[in-house]
Amino acid sequence: MDNTLTGYSKALYSTWFYYKPARLMLDAGEGISQTLGKKIFGIRKIFLTHGHEDHIAGLPSVVNLRNLSNGDREIPIAVYYPEGDPFIGYLREYLDKKQKHRLRYDLDWHPVGPGASVDVEVTRRHTRVRAFAVDHTRGWQSLGWRIEEKRQAIRPEFLGASGEEIGRLVNEKGKSAVLETLWHPMLVYTGDTRPITDVTELKNADTLLIDSTFLNTEEMSESRMSHGHIEASFRAAAEAKVKHLVLMHLSGRYLKRDILGAIDAAAERYGRPPKLGYFFEGKYFELRGSEEADQ
Ligand SMILES: [Zn+2]
Ligand SMILES: [Zn+2]
Prior knowledge:
By secondary structure, this protein is an alpha/beta fold. 27% of the residues lie in helices and 32% in strands. The protein has nine helices and 15 strands. The site of one zinc ion has 4 residues, from loops. Residues 11, 15, 52, 54-55, 192, 249 line the site of one zinc ion.
């Protein structure tokens, strides 16, 4: 998608993303090892949204290959996942039993809930990953994940001021009166979720990866599954002023022209985000106006 983010996403099959600057994975659907190859030795942390197969089936092979193939086999992996998710619980039990005493590195499991935050190593700025609640599974809480960077921003009341004035105000009133610290969302990943109506967690995201399994509400009502759709993703992205909208987890039942039609209809209604792309047959495509570029 750009030089920081690689991934694959197709509903029911597999969804995963590797965010290189922080050496972390968002979900772990199958195909990670084949696609990333040696890069799996870079993985430090894995953030899971929920325990459906298409989001976790790649984990056993990553764990195993990190132990057996040539590379640095001693770097630990930490896995963060929604507490109470029974399927991830089974997978953890399986991996713990199978790999007990055999792993050369530490595989650490961290069950967490909404609001949990984890510092990640990025050289540039203080970065963390934070969990938020999404509505997907019944009986336990699925999570979305935000990659956030600590930034200093001018307080809203001084937004119109020039650089010179800001300098003067800082001298006069002190830094904290003029500037505030905020956690800027560089990337927001919803995992699987019903359409998001409260966009608080998506606000001003540089990149939003959002469940867009279906085309629109009518298509969604045919299914009892708890997923989003393209129209709702556009609505949420517009309200949240997202810069780069990535429609992911699209259903394999649609032809490319169905998807492009739904994108056009939604863009007419809610406007087009500055940058826009979608996944088709697992792969990412970026849209630039009416033409389209393969990335
Ligand atoms: Zn899924
Ligand atoms: Zn799911």
